[in-house]
What we know:
- The chain has helices at residues 3-19, 28-38, 44-55, 80-94, 103-114, 121-135, 140-146, 148-154.
- By secondary structure, it is an all-alpha fold.
Amino acid sequence: MTKKDIDAMENAIYDLLKAYRNEKVFTDNNYLQLGMAVKSYSNEKERFIIQAEFLKDFECTVKTYTQFDLNTGTFEDMNVSQMKSYLAWRTKVRKCIYDEINETYINVYINELINLIGVNTENGLDKLILLWSKYSDSGISNKMLRFDKSILTCYDD
Length: 157
């Protein structure tokens, strides 16, 4: 990624954040804005980072979680109901409440933590370890072990 690409990505994130600076509750309109912000980026990782930065402070509440069954899901793969479910679950996880949830949502959160979205290197690793310990009995531990080398690389100072 070139300096120009990074600057363009930062500008896109800044524009999104500026437009929704005071909002914390995710709405259908935010969902539309999220899609519009990344449509010009061809790199999936860049799109994920822009979307994750945009969503990092949003919260949501739902009565039940919508299924999201993909091997590796991203924000782009979610419909509005799944996005709200993810944000509601993530809001609870950040408050140390670990509801039973579909594995795909957990994988999206792992990708946020690995990319240091909403965390720094120290507390990001702590959150990954805590997430692993809370969901290790649900079968997620085997998938998280695959991230082992990349996590250590990302968090190596």
